[in-house]
Amino acid sequence: MSANSTDRSRLSDVQAAIVTGSSSGIGRAIALQFAEEGVKLVVCADLQACPKKADTAIWETHPEEQSLATHELIISRYGAERATFIRCDVSVERASLAAGEKDRRDYDPPEDTQILGMAEVVEETMRLTGRLDVSVNGTGPFLGSKHAVAQFLRQEPDTYGFRGTIINISSIGGQVGLMRCSAYCASKASIIGLSREVAIEYGRNGIRCNVICPGYIDTPMLQPWVAASPEFAAYLDAGIALGHLGNPADVAGAAAWLASGRESGYITGAVIPVDGGFTAR
């Protein structure tokens, strides 16, 4: 198989995938790739459908972020039944908790839009599709994993013998120390430990759980740091073996492979860096 070829139907047996943090960056790329590769319903979950225009430089560098919301883009390409958006705060379990926090957040949600917790995102996905196959969790891996596992245990195995797959997104900061990032690194390392434990505890129930550790990816979150600090840019240039930042699509490709029971069915509890060789040194 050539470096540029791929099987764009490898996820056609997946009934539903929840992608948290789907409005921009890595989450957006994963949602779009899942749809492209055949997932029947991509549930885009985030605080808001479109990212806020918080920094002009970010939007100039990433003009695609000014276009359609992720679920709208999927619908425009593949049809109305292929995606939906659920307003979600992954740091809380149920909407009653999220509602109590919304006044302290830096956005103003429309009055007619309810913010759901992770338990309700899973419940709503089941109402729409009858089955949940893949859960990609951003900042709420514990709640996402907890409620995904509970649903997986209630459903029958698929063609490959799996009830469902969890792909948690950690970071190279969960594998190695990064200067002045102690809280970040500790939280990202906890995702790795949680995911390994889920893999061990539920493997014989037909549930796989793996972790992707992105390195320095060219997203709206990272771009202003690179632009503002020549020293930081030089640090990245020296540390990345491939010599350039990663693209969100690089992470999405790894996620799609891990989501495929056909291609990665014997892989669980794995920690996969997508970092251009940064952690190889």
| SSE order, one letter for each helix or strand | EHEHHEHHEHEHEHHHHE
Instruction: Please report the total strand number as a whole number.
Output: 7
How much strand? 5-15%
Biggest beta sheet attributes: 7 strands, parallel
Overall mean pLDDT stands at: 84
Gyration radius (Cα, Å) is: 18 Å
Residues in helix, % = 25-40%
Low-confidence runs: 1-5, 54-59, 98-109
**Spatial gap, N to C terminus:** 29 Å
Sum up the overall morphology in one term.
globular
Question: What structural category characterises the helix and strand content?
Answer: alpha/beta
Strand order of the largest sheet: 3-2-1-4-5-6-7
Q: What does this 3D model show about the protein?
A:
By secondary structure, the protein is α/β, with parallel strands linked by helices. It is 40% helix and 14% strand. It contains 11 helices and 7 strands. It has helices at residues 25-36, 56-61, 70-78, 95-101, 118-129, 141-152, 182-202, 223-228, 230-239, 248-259, 261-264, and strands spanning 16-20, 41-46, 83-87, 134-137, 164-169, 207-214, 271-274. The chain has a 7-stranded parallel β-sheet, sandwiched between helices. Helix 6 links the parallel strand 4 and strand 5. Helix 1 packs across helix 10 (248-259) and helix 6 (141-152) packs parallel to helix 7 (182-202). The radius of gyration is 18 Å and the shape is globular. Residues 1-5, 54-59 and 98-109 have low confidence and may be disordered.
